[in-house]
Amino acid sequence: QHPVLPLVGHSHPSVQLSSICLSYLNIYCPSDLQAQKLEVLPEVPGYLGHEAVLRCRFITSSKDSRVLQVQWDIKSESENSTILVFNSDHGMTIRESSLKDRVNLTEHSLKITDLKLTDTGSYTCSISVFPSGSFKETTTLIVYVLLLLVILTAAAYLTYIKR
Questions:
Q1: Which letter does DSSP use for residue 107 in this model?
Q2: pLDDT tens-digit profile of 135-147?
Q3: Do residues 94 and 83 touch, judged by C-beta distance below 8 A?
Q4: Which among 40, 87, 39, 37 has a CA at the least distance from the CA of 62?
Q5: CB 3 within 8 Å of CB 25
Q6: What residue ranges are annotated as transmembrane (predicted)?
Q7: pLDDT single digits (tens) 94-113
Q8: Do 2 and 20 meet the contact criterion of CB atoms below 8 Å apart?
Q9: Nearest-CA neighbor of 63 among 31, 89, 36?
């Protein structure tokens, strides 16, 4: 049982009733009203010729949530399109794009193999969840040339040794 404490200067029964309602609301709050979100990294580094995983995690405390569909889209200098769609009833469809033969879905994350410089861009993960609705977050993939990093590191090292 929840004690009803009158507010200072307020002993009106409706204020006491509101306190009881708020107490019960906090205790009997359905799990669907608790926090749900989609989590991605703002930026993901990748290296030319290697693979990158663009993580997309649906976080919920509700046991009743069911992911119905996952979709990944790309927006870059060279294209603006849907890469793939996974539907829990119909399976996965990989659409025509420069990534078609190099992508796969792991959980809700997008795995891209044999990275190319043109893969640099913004990738949006969209997830439809029953009964909660849709969630969408965007991450940016930046593809680096590994050889350039080695050369820059060597140049910095040699500059440091000469001092």
A1: T
A2: 999 999 999 997 7
A3: yes
A4: 37
A5: no
A6: 141-160
A7: 999 999 999 999 999 999 99
A8: yes
A9: 31
Note the pLDDT tens digit of each residue in 72-83: 999 998 889 999
Q: Which two tokens stand for residue 84?
A: 């793939």
Which amino acid is located at 119 in the chain?
A: D
The distance in angstroms from the start CA to the end CA of the chain is 76
- Structure tokens given for 51: 């693979």
Cα angle 133, 134, 136 (rounded to 5 degrees) comes to 155
Residues ≥6 apart with Cβ < 8 Å to 150 = none
H-helix segments, the chain: 13-27, 146-162
- C-alpha–C-alpha distance, residues 55 and 122, integer Å: 13
Asked whether 112 and 46 are in contact (CB, 8 A), the reply is yes
Cis bond before residue 3 (omega within 30° of 0) = no
The amino acid that residue 72 corresponds to is: W
pLDDT at position 148 is 63
pTM over 0.85: no
């769609």: which residue's tokens?
A: 85
Q: Which amino acid is at 28?
A: Y
Looking up tokens 């469809």, which residue turns up?
93
Tokens for 43, please give them.
Answer: 């930026």
